[in-house]
Amino acid sequence: MKKVEFFFDVGSPASYLAWTQLPKICAAKGAELVFRPMLLGGIFQATGNASPAAVPAKGRYSSIDLGRFAHRYGVPLVMNPHFPINTLQLMRAVTGVQMRHPERFESFLAQLFNALWVEALNLNEPALVGRTIIRAGFSIDEVLALTNELDVKAQLRSTTDEALERGVFGAPTMFVRDEMFFGQDRLVFVEEALS
Which SUPFAM superfamilies does the annotation name (predicted)? Predict the structure, then answer.
């Protein structure tokens, strides 16, 4: 079966936008969507890349451009005023839920993406993270335990390292076989690669 590997971090608004479109694209093309949670901060550190927000003019433009894509896709997007969010614990939680509760993974991911990019919550605040976890149907203790499991931490590191080895420098990055596509604005090329 054809598949799209989706390397992402919930702290990336472009990852959010790609996430709103990839399930439809994969369904239409008869492809499997494979979620590959990685730590974008680790990618940036290893590659010397940085968020567009690090360059004020580019950051302002990126916000406008992402808004245009959200309008095109017909999805909500609120640029989070608390950006950037430290996503280490969030991405450990995403990885842990994917590993231990795969049947609940997509709904958990949806809660996080919506909290960050629709509600624009400050997920640097533990109380707001807790509220989001509870809304996703988990207890705070359950998710905290997952984020502290050694194999969960190792899996997130391993996926991030694999992404680096494959040439990833930002999020989202998609692979169809060995062909890499960076950015939610490249989804048309992902569709073509699946055809």
Answer: Thioredoxin-like
What are the pLDDT digits (tens) for 36-52?
999 999 999 999 998 88
Which tens digit of pLDDT belongs to each residue from 56-90? Answer: 999 899 999 999 999 999 999 999 999 888 999 99
Inter-CA distances, 146 with 9, 93, 122, 182, 195, Å: 17, 6, 21, 29, 38
> What amino acid positions are annotated as catalytic residues?
12
With 0-12 / 13-18 / 19 or more C-beta atoms within 10 angstroms meaning exposed / middle / buried, residue 15 is buried
50 to each of 47, 158, 176, how far by Cα in Å? 9, 21, 25
Q: How far apart are CA 98 and CA 106, in angstroms?
A: 8
Comparing CA positions, the residue from 124, 139, 142, 167 lying closest to residue 11 is 124
pTM of the model: 0.96
Smallest CA-to-CA distance from 170 within 58, 4, 9 is with 9
Q: Which residue has the tokens 């624009």?
A: 120
Query: How many domains does the structure of the chain reveal?
Result: 1
Q: Which domain holds residue 9?
A: 3-194
Beta strands at 173-176 and 32-37: parallel, antiparallel or unpaired: unpaired
Helix axes 56-73, 13-29, angle to 10 degrees: 30
- Return the sign of the alpha-carbon dihedral for residues 153, 12, 44, 41: negative
